[in-house]
Every structure is written in structure tokens, then in C-alpha cells.
DNA sequence: ACTTCGGTTATGGCA
DNA sequence: TGCCATAGCCGAAGT
């Protein structure tokens, strides 16, 4: 990638419309075509653009204008004064990051260990289609004999409450009783409150749902 | 900020849990404490961390271990081999980017020009509290005399449909009839279909809702 | 400090 | 390709 330290300004038009006043910043031109304008704060670029098809360069009044574009977007960068310019070589095939404890893995864990969360639930199926999209887990309440719609989240929000209620709505046309359940690692108070008002059961995953358990699953 | 080109690996634990195998990458250490690990693809860092309170450095077997942490997160970076190291100075007070055509500006535009979208609607208030969060615009249908709950989006999704229906649910305890309306620049087909099934009116903002109109508004 | 919501969200998966 | 849901979403504003 190429790194340029310069006083620059920018204009973007595409998904949104932005104007960036001039300041001394870092411009990164990655080998895959990605362009990033960085300042010294935070982790997000101020302006950026990916999937660039067209690039043009102009010189006007001693300033360099860079024009990046694709079918839907346009980014203009004006380099007022260049202080440094350098090229660095990184690994072409960067081995990808390994993510653990994702919602997908949590869902697989709970599918296999539902009774650890609550003894009375019996797992029936995963990603069961309701008509409003698939519910994460469909289970049976061994005490009541009724059905259970379970929505799983790493962090449950009020949206999760409405989501599981939608599934229950849809499933109630097929089953006599459907009980809404939210299972998550974290709930905030307002979510628990709303769930309680709406009759949605909230269950927390034991914090020791462990890496060892994963060995049983294959994601692919 | 400091830039380091090195063969490095990383482990993060906090909001999630990740493992990054070694490769030659760019490490950015920003002046505000932000740490970024970049490769030569895309606009996102592979690993990163912000709001760091604690930093420790260790040397083991000729390798440098960097340990960044705060109350909730921990990031370890192992520098196996360092190729380059440099320090660059950027502007301390980066003037902030100017965003146009944001949802907020769209909301203000529609507040003042609701009759341009549909003659029969009369604006009553903005950000009206429903009990399930504020509805963007509360209006009156001059033909029916009923109330109108309007949700505004740059791009409307199926979630927007459920959102406005929640507001209507809540408002119906206060008003006799409440009509759900979605106003957006873009709708996708499935959103329009769902809205139609659920009795939610979809209205598109004329593409010439112009910058000139903004002059009337003050955001602050 | 926590919650809520918009974002040029990005990104991966699947129809 | 478009649409959907997740993400270590981030960041900002309000409480």
C-alpha cells in the first residue's frame, strides 16, 4: 500500500454526500484499490471508498486532484501540500481472523445443550421457518406439552423481544400454544422489563459454555 | 501516530473473542490511543481497540508483546519481526466532516414540506413520544380527521414497517384512529410488499428535495 | 455510565 | 444480484 501524509480536502458523493475541509491527514491507498483518509482519532476513516473502477489524476494550481469512482460513487481528494510519501509491502494472503463465541456458535451450542439452560425444554429443530423468517430454535415444553419459540442473541435488545413475538404470532396458526423465549449472554434492564410485560421468558446462558463443547460441532 | 510494519499475530477478548494468525501487516498507534491492525484489503482494520487505559510491553524469546486493555477488553499483539517503524504528525484539531442528506435533514425537510409528499397530511409535531420511543412525525389526515404516525428513513427496510406499527399500537390507546405511514428515499420490493400486507402506506420523497430548501432550517 | 439509533454502516450468506 | 441479519458493529446524543 501507499501512504501519503498531506494537507488534503475531500468531497464524496454516493451512498451519502459529504464535504471534508482541508487538514493534514494520512491517505492510504491499498493494493486492492481501497482508499482511506485517516486522522489521528478513532478507528474509522473520515472518508473512504472501496471497489473503485476508475481513477483520474489532475494538476490544478499546483495542487493534485485525485478522482476515484465507480458506478454509484465518486470521491475527490485534493492534495494541497504533500509532506511524505512511502510504499509498504504487506502479505498478499493474509490468513483470516478466527472468531469465537459468535451468535452462530452460540446457537449451535444451545441446540445441543438446551436442557442445560432449562430442563423442561426439549430441542426439536433449528432455523425453523415460521413465515416471518426462521426462528432460531423450535422446542417443546415437556411440562405443558406446548411449543416453544426460542430466539438467541449474544446481546438481547427490545427488538429481540418483538422478533420472537412475531414468530410466535405466526406459529400460533399451526400450534395450539407457543411460548416465546429469549436466550442470551446479556440482557439490559429495559429489555428484561419489556419481555416481562409481553410474557417473554428470558434465560441467560451459563458463563461457562465452553470452548470444549465446540469440538462436537462442524460449521461447514 | 506511529506506524509499524511487522509480522504480527493478535488475540482479542472483549465484545467478542478473536485469534489472528501471524502475517506481515501494518500496525497503527494513533495519538488518541486507538490501535489498528491493517492488512492490504478493504477499509476495516482486522483487529483494533479504542479507549485504552492500560498499556504494557514485554519481551519474550526476541518477540515484543504489546498488551492493551480497558475495563472490558484486552488486546494482545505479538510482534514477531519488525520491518519499519515511523512517526507522523497530523493536525490535532481536524475540522469535522460535513454530512448532507442525512436522515435528520430529511426529517426536517419533510416536517416543513409534508403537503408536498401528500396533500391530505397536516404536520403536527416531530419526535413525538409514543411510549415505544419517539415517532418521527405525528400528523393529521385532513380527509379522515384521523392521526398519522410517520416513520422516515433514507432507506426503508422490513424493520421500518414493524417499527411504525409499534408506534401505532402505542398511539391507539390515546387516539381513535392512527394510520401508519413510511416515507423514504428508497424502498426495496419486499419492504413494499410487507407494508402493503400490513396496511402501511409507503411514500417516496421526490428526488429533487433540494439543498435550497435547507436554508430555511437551523439544526441548532 | 448506560441506552438508543443512525450509518456512505460493512460483511457474509443465501435465494 | 439483491436481500437479510450479524457485527468485537462504531459513534453520537440523550438520560
Keywords summarizing the entry:
homodimer; 220 residues; alpha+beta; seven-stranded antiparallel sheet; five-stranded mixed sheet; 5 helices; 19% helix; disordered C terminus; DNA-binding
Can you tell me about this structure?
Two copies of one chain form a homodimer. The first copy, chain A, is an alpha+beta fold and 220 residues long. Chain A contains five helices and 13 strands. In chain A, strands 4-3-2-1-7-6-5 form a seven-stranded antiparallel sheet, with no helix packed on it. A five-stranded mixed sheet of chain A has the order 9-10-11-12-13, with helices on both faces. In chain A, strand 10 and strand 11 form a beta hairpin. In chain A, helix 3 packs parallel to helix 4. The longest helix of chain A is centred in the C-terminal third of the chain and has 14 residues. The two termini of chain A are 33 Å apart. The C terminus of chain A is likely disordered. Strand 2 of chain A pairs antiparallel with strand 8 of chain B. Chain A binds a DNA duplex (15 and 15 nucleotides) through strand 4.
Provide a compact summary of the structure.
By secondary structure, the first copy, chain A, is of the alpha+beta class. Helices cover 19% and strands 47% of the residues of chain A.
Amino acid at each position: 500500500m501507499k501512504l501519503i501524509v498531506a494537507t488534503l480536502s475531500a468531497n464524496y458523493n454516493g451512498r451519502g454526500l459529504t464535504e471534508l475541509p482541508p487538514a493534514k491527514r494520512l491517505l492510504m491507498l491499498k493494493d486492492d484499490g481501497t482508499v482511506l483518509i485517516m486522522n489521528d482519532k478513532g478507528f474509522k476513516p473520515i472518508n473512504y471508498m472501496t471497489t473503485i473502477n476508475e481513477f483520474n489524476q489532475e494538476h490544478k494550481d499546483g495542487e493534485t486532484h485525485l478522482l476515484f469512482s465507480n458506478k454509484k460513487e465518486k470521491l475527490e481528494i485534493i492534495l494541497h501540500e504533500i509532506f511524505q510519501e512511502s510504499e509498504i509491502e504487506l502479505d498478499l494472503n493474509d490468513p483470516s481472523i478466527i472468531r469465537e463465541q459468535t451468535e452462530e456458535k452460540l446457537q449451535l451450542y444451545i441446540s445441543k445443550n438446551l436442557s442445560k439452560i432449562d430442563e423442561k425444554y426439549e430441542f426439536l429443530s433449528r432455523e425453523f421457518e415460521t413465515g416471518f423468517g426462521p426462528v432460531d430454535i423450535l422446542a417443546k415444553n415437556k411440562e405443558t406439552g406446548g411449543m416453544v419459540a426460542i430466539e438467541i442473541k449474544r446481546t438481547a435488545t427490545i427488538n429481540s423481544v418483538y422478533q420472537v413475538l412475531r414468530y410466535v404470532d405466526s406459529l400460533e396458526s399451526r400450534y395450539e400454544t407457543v411460548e416465546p423465549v429469549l436466550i442470551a449472554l446479556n440482557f439490559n434492564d429495559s429489555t428484561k422489563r419489556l419481555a416481562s410485560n409481553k410474557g417473554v421468558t428470558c434465560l441467560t446462558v451459563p458463563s461457562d459454555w465452553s470452548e470444549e463443547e465446540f469440538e462436537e460441532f462442524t460449521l461447514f
